[in-house]
Amino acid sequence: MKIDEMFPSRWLHSDDLGGKRIAAEIDTVEIETFDNGDKKPMVSFRGAKKSLVLNQTNARAIAEIAGSDDSDKWGGVRVSLEAIVVDYPRIGGK
Fold this sequence. Notes:
Blueprint: H1 3-6, E1 22-33, E2 39-45, E3 52-53, H2 56-66, E4 78-81
Antiparallel strand pairs: 1-2, 1-4, 2-3
């Protein structure tokens, strides 16, 4: 059994893309409150089972594609999802 099968998640992870670039259409953007009280924006995609937890970089990229920084106007916008390696110093650059 794979680890992802042992610990399923509602949230989209890079492994879910299988190393491919995936075209997706945004359905909604909502604020999700996590068990620890953190609130984060979540993007759901039409026909997808998992939502994407947005960080500021991804939110700005979607705003540029959508032509609006108002997430209420992102429904129906088509985006391309791809896992890339980025420098993230807080976790040792991984």
